[in-house]
Specification:
This protein is of the alpha/beta class and 498 residues long. It has a domain at 86-110 and 232-430: 3-Layer(aba) Sandwich (Rossmann fold), CATH 3.40.50. It has helices spanning 14-20, 39-43, 50-59, 67-77, 112-116, 119-130, 145-154, 173-180, 196-208, 210-218, 231-250, 270-281, 297-304, 329-336, 341-354, 361-370, 378-392, 398-414, 432-440, 450-461, 488-496; strands at residues 2-4, 29-31, 91-95, 98-102, 135-141, 160-167, 187-193, 221-225, 260-265, 285-292, 306-308, 356-358, 371-375, 420-424, 482-484. The strands form four sheets. It has a six-stranded mixed sheet, sandwiched between helices. The chain has a five-stranded parallel sheet with strand order 8-5-6-7-15, sandwiched between helices. Strands 1-2 form a two-stranded antiparallel sheet. Helix 7 links the parallel strand 5 and strand 6. Helix 17 packs across helix 18. The chain is globular.
């Protein structure tokens, strides 16, 4: 069963938690109890394909889904039509203790694909199980990658409309074109004059607006979410932490039971939270290293115990991490404080009213046991790309470069030589301008548009452009709406015909 982080809603089944997206009265759904896997059970998954690991791990969280239903979802999501690598999430060895987990082999070249190729199938089943006759309106706030991955995942799914809101001028040209060129009878992309937090907060406000939901119900619509606030989006991400560990075992890089580190570039805290859940289930994790860019609200929080979003918002070359309100942190705090809804309510109220909160000493000590945190500035991000390419012949995107730089700092500070997996969250071609600038200098970009830069990066690296990004400039722009933050709700009404 699933419960609210704020103790304000009845227990629900897994399918209900996925259907609802977030707790209707505010808060997020989490499992009432976490399943676990013994060392033997984890070792039994060695040598099995990604699909088998997904079935095994996810079934533990989805007791009201039949095994054949889970299998069907997995087969529809993880296949050669959707992913350009048979391993789904292959591991690249940089040196004797550093590895990159490539999470960008899906249709939109970003790690969100791994969850969003599967989630629509889970949601469709959840609707069937609930006997829901109403149409579903999926609302998504994106800082770049989630939007296209969600649009692609839910495209042409009957009974569902998906509306994506993204910061106008706050995503790369490639990211924007990926969204605005999306076809499908049920897809909508809207640019918002503001930043990601403006988009995310507006979507949260709509979800919490009971009067508006009644109006939607009268028009036969029900809201749901594809952001990582939805458990159905977060759960598939737990799988690749297990697969990475199993991959290291299979390659004889580690011995059974050996603890490893994961470095996770993160903004909304969903990706790293999935790793934390994997650890709680029994995966031998030493440290989860939370990597931030110059919007380092999470780094400051883990180092001080004070979460404070009252700061300058910076646009960086790693835009998917340009976030000051990390929604999934609420789940983590609820778990780490032993399901104390009272604390969560106090902290989230303070965050909403004052923009900050601070946790107690016990909570901070519990966090320090598993989480390390650091950040990288723009210059460090670009130098990391250059360094890895020059010394290892491996190309990083800007977000993964943040992770690599933060890991270097962690290693220098701690001397911790545990085998370490860095989550490579996007294809380098998705942020080709910054990547090319890093390896050839800013002057090299002169006279080249973003698509010429894509081809030049491919030529220099001898790596083909990711299939999801090829010929993007030739596709017609189908979504041109731009609105103010205060107009987001009106856009939802207009699109749904309310």
């Amino acid at each position: 069963m699933y419960i609210s982080t704020r103790g304000n809603f009845e227990e629900v089944t897994a399918s209900e938690a996925i259907r609802l997206g977030m707790v209707p009265t505010g808060g997020l759904f989490v499992p009432a109890e976490l399943p676990s896997l013994s060392r033997e059970e984890i070792l039994e998954m060695q040598g099995k394909p990604y699909q088998e690991t997904a079935r095994r791990v996810m079934s533990l969280f989805l007791p009201d889904f039949l095994p054949e239903e889970i299998n069907d979802c997995v087969e529809k999501a993880y296949n050669e039509n959707n992913f350009d690598h048979a391993s789904i999430a292959p591991l690249f060895r940089l040196d004797s203790h550093t590895y990159f987990l490539e999470l960008w082999h899906g249709p939109t070249a970003a790690f969100k694909d791994i969850a969003l190729q599967l989630m629509p199938h889970l949601l469709s089943l959840a609707l069937q199980k609930a006997g829901v006759k109403r149409k579903i309106a999926i609302l998504v706030a994106t800082s770049g990658d989630t939007g296209k991955a969600a649009l692609e995942g839910f495209k042409n799914v009957p009974g569902i409309k998906i509306i994506v809101f993204y910061p106008y001028g706050g995503v790369s040209r490639v990211q924007e074109l990926q969204m605005t060129a999306t076809d499908g009878f049920n897809t909508y992309a809207v640019a918002v004059r503001g930043n990601f937090d403006d988009c995310q907060n507006s979507v949260k406000e709509i979800f919490a607006d009971e009067e508006f939901k009644k109006i939607l119900a009268g028009k036969s619509y029900e809201l749901s979410s594809a952001n990582s606030i939805n458990w159905g989006r977060l759960l598939p991400q737990v799988v690749y932490y297990f697969r990475a560990y199993l991959n290291l075992l299979e390659k004889k890089e580690i011995i059974p039971g050996e603890r490893i580190n994961f470095v996770v570039p993160t903004g909304n805290f969903g990706n790293i939270l999935a790793g934390w859940y994997a650890g709680r289930m029994g995966l031998p994790i030493n440290k989860l290293i939370c990597a931030s860019n110059e919007n380092k609200v999470l780094t400051d929080f883990f180092q001080s115990g004070i979460y404070d979003r009252n700061r300058e918002f910076k646009q960086t070359s790693s835009p998917s991490m340009d976030i000051l309100i990390s929604s999934n942190l609420e789940r983590f705090l609820f778990e780490i404080s032993n399901h104390c809804a009272g604390k969560i309510n106090r902290w989230m109220t303070a965050l909403k009213e004052t923009g900050r909160f601070d946790v107690d000493t016990g909570t901070r000590q519990a966090m320090e046991q598993i989480i390390a945190a650091g950040f990288a500035v723009e210059e460090e991000t670009l130098s990391a790309i250059e360094e890895v390419f020059e010394t290892g012949g491996y190309l990083l995107d800007t977000h993964t470069a943040v992770g690599f730089k933060v890991y270097q700092k962690y290693l220098a500070a701690t001397g911790d030589k545990s085998k370490t997996v860095i989550c490579a969250t996007a294809s380098p071609f998705k942020f080709s301008s910054s990547v090319l600038q890093a390896i050839k200098g800013k002057d090299y970009l002169s006279g080249k548009d973003e698509f010429g830069i894509l081809q030049e990066l491919s030529r220099l690296s001898k790596i083909p452009v990711h299939p999801g990004l090829r010929n993007l400039e030739a596709k017609p722009v189908l979504h041109r709406t731009v609105c103010e933050r205060k107009e987001i709700k009106a856009q939802v009404e207009k699109i749904l015909g309310i």
